[in-house]
Amino acid sequence: LCPCLIYGAYIFLPFDAPLLPTVSARLVYTLRCATFATFPIVLGMIVSGISRLCSSALEPFGELQREVEIHRTYVSQSVHLFILYFFNMAVLATYLPQELLKLIPLLTGLFAISRLIFWMSYAIGRSFRAFGFSMTFLPLLAMLLWNLYGMFVLEPENLLS
């Protein structure tokens, strides 16, 4: 489903990436796009704080209720995946040709939407969360494989430069 979503958005959404000739310009563009991927994490932190305040726990460091635990776990996992996502996206931006830089905001949007889907499905039940997690993890795995291919096959002479 993820490749179909990315391909459909790439073809049908009417925007193009700006001209980014240098590596530093591409990294700044990636950083700006990645700020939008933090939206589900910040929203999760807000909801986690509100649910912690509204819980009926008398001990602040005691056993958490299921509702509080869901939001806390979601935020923790999302931060870990965002770090992996951001570093892979930064490396990907250096290897992509100019005409494919439109993938950077599309992958950012997919990350944000898939984390929200994971959060909703995790709140429904733990057995339903596989769809949202796979929509987050499989594009991340594809980016990692493309980055390794780019580093070791396409440009092995520039590996450490």
Automatic annotation (TrEMBL):
<feature type="transmembrane region" description="Helical">
    <location>
        <begin position="74"/>
        <end position="97"/>
    </location>
</feature>
<keyword id="KW-0472">Membrane</keyword>
<dbReference type="GO" id="GO:0032588">
    <property type="term" value="C:trans-Golgi network membrane"/>
</dbReference>
<dbReference type="GO" id="GO:0045055">
    <property type="term" value="P:regulated exocytosis"/>
</dbReference>
<feature type="transmembrane region" description="Helical">
    <location>
        <begin position="103"/>
        <end position="124"/>
    </location>
</feature>
<feature type="transmembrane region" description="Helical">
    <location>
        <begin position="131"/>
        <end position="152"/>
    </location>
</feature>
<feature type="transmembrane region" description="Helical">
    <location>
        <begin position="29"/>
        <end position="53"/>
    </location>
</feature>
<protein>
    <submittedName>
        <fullName>TMM79 protein</fullName>
    </submittedName>
</protein>
<keyword id="KW-0812">Transmembrane</keyword>
<keyword id="KW-1133">Transmembrane helix</keyword>
<dbReference type="GO" id="GO:0005765">
    <property type="term" value="C:lysosomal membrane"/>
</dbReference>
